[in-house]
Amino acid sequence: MIDSYRYIGKETPRRDGAEVVTGSAEYVDDIRFTNLLYGEVLRSPHPHARIKQIEKSKAEVLGGVEAILTWENVPDWKFGTPTIFRILDRKVRFVGDAVAIIAARTKDIAREAARLIEVEYEVLPPVFDMEAAMKPGAPQLYEELPGNKLPLYAPVLGPKSLTEIVMGDVEKGFAEADVIAEGTFGYENIPNPLPPEPPSAVALWQEPNKVTVWVSNQQVWLNRKILSEIFGDNVEVRAIGGPCGGSYGSKVMSWQVQCYAAALSKATGKPVKVCFSKEEHLAAFVLRPETRIHARVGMKKDGTVTAISGKWLLGTGYYSMTTQAQLSVGAGEAQIAVRCANWDVKPTIVCTNRNASGIVRGFGGQELKCALIPLLSLAMEKADLDPFEVLKKNYLKPGDGYYWRDGNWYSYRGVDYTKAMEKGAQTFGWKAKWKGWLKPTALNGTKRTGVGVGIHGNADIGEDVSEAYVRLDPEGRAVIYSSVTEHGTGQRSNCIKVVAEVLQLPLEAVSITPSDTLITPVEWGPAGSRGTYAILSAAIAAAEDAKQKLLQFTAPLLGVGMGDLETEDGFIWVKNRPDNRITWKDALELRTVLGHGRFNPDYSFANCMMSFVEVEVDTETGKVTLLRVVNATDVGQIIDPPGIRGQLNGCLGTAGIDSALFEETVLDRATGCVLNANMIDYKWRTFSELPPIDNVIMETPFPSHRFGAVGIGEVATSPGPSAVLMATSNAIGVWLHEYPVTPQRVLEALGKVGSK
Amino acid sequence: MEVKVNEQTRKKSEEDKHISLVINGNQYSLEVGYGSYQVKPSDTLAYTLRETLGLTGTKVSCDDGACGSCTVLMSSKAVPSCMILTVECAGKDITTIEGLGDPKTGTLDPLQQSFVDHTAFQCGFCTPGMIMSAKALLNENPHPTEEEIKEALSGNFCRCISHYQVLEAVLAASEKDGGDND
Amino acid sequence: MRTFTHINAHTVNEACELLGQYRGKARLNAGGTDLLAMLKGDIWPEYPEAVINVKTIPGLDSITENDNVLKIGALALLSDVAKSPTIKEKCGVLAKAALSVGSPLIRNVATIGGNLCQAPRCWYYRYPRRLGGPLPCLRKGTGPCLAVKGDNRYHAILEGKGCFAVCTSDIAVALAALDAKITIAGPKGERSISVVDFFQPLGNTLKIDEMIKDFQIPATMLSMEQRFLKFTLRKPIDFAIVSVAASIGLNNGVCTDARIILGAVAPMPFRAKAAEEKIVGQPISDNVAAEAAEKALANAKPLSMNAYKVEIAKTLVRRAIKGSTAGLGE
Ligand SMILES: Cc1cc2nc3c(=O)[nH]c(=O)nc-3n(C[C@H](O)[C@H](O)[C@H](O)COP(=O)(O)OP(=O)(O)OC[C@H]3O[C@@H](n4cnc5c(N)ncnc54)[C@H](O)[C@@H]3O)c2cc1C
Ligand code: SF4
Ligand code: FES
Ligand code: FES
Question: What is the pTM of this model?
Answer without folding.
Answer: 0.97
